[in-house]
Amino acid sequence: MNFHILTLFPEMIINALHTSITGRALEHGHIALQAVNIRDFSKNKHKKVDDYPYGGGAGMLMQAQPVYDAYKSVADTIPSEHKKRVIYVTPQGYPFNQEMAENFAKNDDLIFLCGHYEGIDERVLEEVVTDYVSIGDYVLTGGELAAMVMIDAIARLVPGVLHNEISAETESFHGELLEYPQYSRPEVWHNRKVPNVLLSGNQKKIEAWRLEESIKRTKERRPDLYQEYERLQRCKARLMKKKILHMDMIELINRGRAVIVLKEWDKILLKDKKTNIFYYTGDSSDLLMDLDDETRYSIEEIVLHQVDLVEEVKEILKKEDALFCYQAVYTQKERMPITGLYRADGKPTAQGLIIRPLTEEDSDKISEMYDLVDDIEYTKERILAGCMFGAFLNEEFAGCAGIHDDGSIGMLKVLEKYCKRKIGSALETYVINYALQLGWTPYAYVVVDNMISLEMQKKLGLHLSKTPIVWIA
User: Fold this and answer.
1) How far apart are the C-alpha atoms of 387 and 373, rounded to whole Å?
2) pLDDT of 370
3) Cα–Cα dist 147/244, whole Å
4) pTM, 2 dp
5) Taking Cα atoms as reference points, which of 343, 351, 359, 364 lies closest to residue 418?
């Protein structure tokens, strides 16, 4: 991702963002930063960029010409195929939040326009700005600090910046709940003791306590978030009536990624905040008819949980492709046994097999996957996100598996020469145990005619949905 900041104080931006996590991300090339001095584009011999506003009033206004020329100096260098947004940092904008950060993180280039004085000539804003964004209902002397706040929040969502995307998914605002209180050593500080449950070693009790504290804190500090949490929990209760069929939607809620688009009794339409994939369940397609045109046209993919509604939904959404899959779910909370498959300590097994997370340093292994994966760039993204795992037999790459951006496990591939050595089972077991470690319920989509995979799911102890779900695009 490329960040471009149009500012009167470029050194302020450069000095601040070249530190800590953003500094390391810049150093490793996960993000790029360009600070453009608007004053360099002034045609005034004194490099003046402001003037009095028409109609009178206090203060000065930034002129359109230097702002526009600074913008063009950046925009003209951005490839036409890149997704870009131009963000004007202003107290008059929409409030910045985590969902907005996630949406901005999906772009290739973000141009931030930082105002000063009484603002910027409206004409240039109308011509170039796509988003008006505020970080709060107060006024700063300029937009630089606000831009840096947004860049920090957005950058950490870019694959590779945190080395593991899970870090970005398990913090405050996860699941519409604020994060629970955290404690470190010493055990007693200023006569305040760490809660006993955190010292108990009982993980189930610890998780229950954390959830209770998150709910309590959210009720007190953010009742608006708590109301949405309650709505999602009511949806979840409905979905749990057919748990295996709806595990993708249930986990979407559990992992804090679900937005309720529409709900009417047992008819539920959710959207994944991260991928913008929609999920629908209901005894009829009536609810989808209630969508406004903007939402209907924004649906690129929808996961349908009633196979008999496929043709109706395709007609309503004007879609053509449908992929039928069974949902496979591992319902146990305990980790799967790994005896003879791989070693938990990361050392080779007797046959020389190691399974470990793939990293950027494994980029040369990508070439060996070309015959295995449909989208090599997507696979690279999942590696950067810390969600791809490789099997190595006697230090030679043998196969891979991972977690999709929609949260399902999959991408299981084994090189032909290493087939029939239980490497596929070892990889899936590893990924399932990894998901369990994160507190997730592991699930996968298996195409209905993939008999080899279906049989493996059963052998590993996963439960298959009685009826297929359908991906419509």
Assistant:
1) 15
2) 63
3) 44
4) 0.83
5) 351
The answer to whether the peptide bond before residue 186 is cis (omega within 30 degrees of 0) is yes
Q: Which of 427, 426, 470 is nearest to 448 (CA)?
A: 470
Rounded Cα gap, residues 264 and 248, in angstroms: 19
Q: Which residues pair with 59 in a beta bridge?
A: none
| Strand partners for 267 | 264
User: CA-CA-CA-CA torsion for 86, 90, 94, 99, nearest 10 degrees?
Assistant: 60
**pLDDT for the residue numbered 168:** 53
Blockwise average pLDDT, block size 10, the chain, 473 residues: 97 95 94 97 91 86 96 98 96 92 94 92 96 94 96 92 60 69 94 96 92 95 93 97 98 93 95 94 95 94 98 96 98 94 94 93 72 75 89 94 95 92 96 94 98 96 98 98
Q: Measure the CA dihedral 289/293/298/303, to 10°.
A: 0
Distance, in Å, from the CA atom of 6 to the CA atom of 365, rounded to the nearest integer, reads: 40
pLDDT score, position 377? 81
Taking the C-alpha atoms of residue 309 and residue 283, their distance in angstroms, rounded to an integer, is 8
Q: Can you tell me the distance from the alpha carbon of 222 to that of 226, in angstroms, rounded to the nearest whole number?
A: 6
Q: How far apart are CA 471 and CA 325, in angstroms?
A: 8
Q: How many CB atoms lie within 10 A of CB 133?
A: 24
In angstroms, the CA 229 to CA 180 distance is: 15
The pLDDT value recorded for residue 172 is 41
Non-local (6+) Cβ contacts of 253 within 8 A are 175, 232, 233, 235, 236, 239, 270
